[in-house]
Amino acid sequence: MALGPTQRLKDGIATVETMTRFALAVLALASGVYTYLGVRSILDGSPTGVFFAAIIYSVSVSVGIYAFWSYMARFYPHITSRTGKTAMLFVMAAGAAMILAMSSWLNAAALAGSAAVEQHLSETVEGYAADLDRAHQNALAVQSLLPDIQRASERFTQLAAVERQSGSLTGTTGSGSVVQLLSQMSGQMKSLEANINGSREQVSELFEQGQKRLETMRSLISAPGLIAPRADQFSTEAVALTGVISSLAQTSIAPSIRRAADDLSLGFIAPVADGSDANLVNRQDQVMATVRTSVAAQSKALAKAADEILARAPVGERRFVPLSSAEAVLHYAQDFIPAWAGAISIDLLPGVMVFILAVAHASIRRQEEKLPYAERISAAELMRALEIQRALSANGVDLEAAIARAEGEEKKVESEGTAEEPNNITNLDPRSRGRDRERDRLHDDR
């Protein structure tokens, strides 16, 4: 009778055999269902065609997974040679890789595809928000020139007023050439100021439009329902927002300010002195030369400030690239590790059961090797051996002599240090075949 622990292991393996098949079937079915959901998210075409294509693919995956792990559970635990185990492990690794390629990533797409697409939309919104802020800042950068332009305009206006009332510059009151020149410079500065103020309103309006687009895009991300129609509407909003950002980039009047700054200096035209005597004309010329120097300095400072604004990096064009749920899961795999772990576990969990069976069978073999042959045989085997013994005795075969001869041959072989190798060549000698059968029976009896 077999030893207790060994028999319990055998009984346990026989007991869980049905459960193993049931577990393989359930896991294969679960993988097929999630594979079906994942395939539907990446196929295009008519609803009927997509349905049947996804069904056929998912059924193929389920059957393949069940068959593969059934073969491994049936054969791998009974292979004892190192070469055979290495080959089977290689086959198992190749099969596991194929299962990951054809099923696991689709399972992950079914488990976390919508969340991955939503994350893709969220990151896209953040990128568009950053672009909108940069475009807005670039467009408003020219507003920093407004205080300097206002001060220059006020200074020219005040000098013109003082010259008209008290003649503090030329010593003669009234509206002469100097007053005319100062008023002209003040008018040019006020024109630049008006242009800057006008652009501010346009920039503010475009920025408000962009903010509304962003709010709509964020609401689409957090809205309930299927992700596909929300992603389509998101794409429409992204295109509109791209147009707003481009308009903001084109709204900046920094180039216009740069050209106006050059015109202040290069296009300076001083009026002819209109004094009534030579002394007044000389004083007017001196004042206008001073004004020209002041205008040149103002022009240089304004041009430098405009160049700094123009040197800012422009906002690059951003394109929204929609992703399917399967593509999004692959692209953001590091953010959905639990979903990937679950998807892979469904497909590869049967491998754990295969190794459990392999360990159990290996333990049985080790325990049986330590027992004498008489303790390893079952009651049925013992009864069959007794029947063979009675049959041999009835035919007049001397069992003790045959056993002694067999033992002598074995000792002779051991003393020569040779190992008995299996012979795959069929012996055609009837007498030799009879002796072989007799020896086999004697070994069974022993």
Binned, the helix content reads over 70%
The secondary-structure element order is HHHHHHHHHHHHHH
Q: Which oligomeric form is depicted?
A: single chain
Radius of gyration: 48 Å
Which class do the helix and strand fractions yield?
A: mainly alpha
Please work out how many helical segments DSSP would assign. Answer: 14
Give the strand content. under 5%
Shape: rod-shaped
Low-confidence stretches: 418-435, 442-446
Number of strands: 0
Distance between the termini: 15 Å
Report the average pLDDT across residues.
Answer: 78
3D architecture notes:
α12 crosses α14. The protein folds into 3 domains: 109 residues, no CATH class; 207 residues, no CATH class; 52 residues, no CATH class. The chain has 14 helices and no strands. The protein is mainly alpha-helical and 446 residues long. The chain starts with a helix and ends with a helix. It is rod-shaped, with a radius of gyration of 48 Å.
Task: Quickly describe the structure.
The chain is mainly α and 446 residues long. Helices cover 80% and strands 0% of the residues. It is rod-shaped and about 165 Å long.
Key attributes of the depicted protein:
3 domains, 446 residues, 14 helices, rod-shaped, single chain, disordered C terminus
List the SSEs and their pairings.
Layout: H1 4-40, H2 47-75, H3 82-140, H4 146-166, H5 177-222, H6 227-251, H7 254-266, H8 278-310, H9 325-331, H10 337-369, H11 373-376, H12 379-394, H13 399-416, H14 430-445
